[in-house]
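Progress narrative, work stream C.
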Amino acid sequence: MEKQVFAVDVEGIGTFQFRRRTMRENLRIDAEYSRLTEGVETPSKSLDLTAEMMSTLKVLTEDAPDGWDVDALDPLDPETYRKLIAVYSALREKEEFFRRGPGKAGQGDRQTSGGDDGVVVPADVQPGAD
């Protein structure tokens, strides 16, 4: 099966080419996550988030702008985490776009969060009796 690749432009960083996430790729991401966390059963939030972003980008990146190497990012440079989050977020946004298709609303398009299912109730409807 031929790899499906798509482009994602990340402002201020450049254009990335990512492989489409498949079950096999997802297993590779999980294996890389385990390597990065060194098998820690309950990683800290910071370790979990950083390992998730790095493992996903490492596995799915087909081509990256010159100078981008997720393994060589400087952990002491404050810009590193901003860039890592920007690239990961752009990838996930594009993946979600593919899932829902163009022109269809998704969870990210909602104005509110929580239990709101988007049903509008007219103002003249009275609440039920307890």
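Work stream C, second folded protein:
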Amino acid sequence: MKRNLHWLLLVALLVALAFDAIVWSAAAQMPGSGIHLYRSARREAPLTYFYMLAGRPLRALPPLRDYGDAYAQHALSGVADEITMKPELAMEIAHGSGSAGKLATLQWMHYAPPLLFVAWLVAYLRRPKAVHLVARRR
């Protein structure tokens, strides 16, 4: 297990990064509050802004676009009106304490890629190395 831990962490990192990129990119495209989220992320939240930019190419695939749109709409529907009324607080509202399950999951997954990257780096550096008892012939 320890031998393959860095591979498992790499897969988890890529899945978490793709999830965040797809959903935050879809949130930036939401009618009404999407432009406020995008502008606020550009000013205040570099990680969220990175997710929004990284998700643009992924939105070219219709299944990913549909999933992201549905998830973002469901997660941010409770706070979309508040974001529209207070556009200068869009990131604080989106990252604030959410009572909805999908919004809480979105907030929890926001910091998963950087943490998984650190865990992957540690696992990669500490992976067992191959041991050669006999010199190789050339």
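Residues 5-28 form the longest helix (24 residues). No further action is required on this item.
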